[in-house]
Amino acid sequence: MPVKNFIKKLLKTYFVTGLLVAGPIGLTLMVVHAVVSRVDILFYRFIPLALQPERLFGFKIPGLGVIISILLIILTGMLTANVLGRFAVGLFERLMYRIPLIKSIYTLFKQVADTTFGQDKKGFRRVVLIEYPRKGIWAIGFVTGVTQGEIQRITEKKVVNIFLPTTPNPTSGFYIMVPEDEMIALDMTTDEAFKLIISGGMVVPLEKDENALSATVKK
Length: 219
Hints:
Layout: H1 2-44, H2 53-56, H3 64-80, H4 83-98, H5 100-117, E1 126-131, E2 138-146, H6 150-154, E3 159-165, E4 173-179, E5 184-185, H7 190-198, H8 208-218
Antiparallel strand pairs: 1-2, 1-5, 2-3, 3-4
Helix pairs in contact: 1-3
């Protein structure tokens, strides 16, 4: 009996250890495979049957859609970098702004892209702590900008736009407006905050002084 219990405990230890190693690797590969497969399916619909890799080479090329997407983005950036490209983009934008429904959709996505990837890069750059959904309960949010227009005019305090992500899917969440003096700025980076949210609080970033202490100890 003691030997049997020892073997069961040993196997359980090995299983948990293997799960800790293989679990993240397997889940990462599953997510990457799902994304690549979806992009491939999308792009294969636009490739003529005679030009598809199966017909040309006799086998399918995994990730071809991702490769084409990256090349198209780089090509678009190259074309936009010159005067002729900027002129063409200007014509396209004027066309988008002339179509009522398309105008609203295009303007929304353009503003989000400019805020997130533009030279100013103001979106999702500050991590803050706020009391939500009530006093005494805290939540992590990302400052996306300062509230402007009518809302700022009718509020007594300076109000800040905050995106409050959900766990474990941070791509969904809530848009709330919080007085600036009622939020606490955090030192953690955006990546650290996302890891904390996705893990449900299991992956907690070290404080800056702890990082410095760890670096000193390693030296």
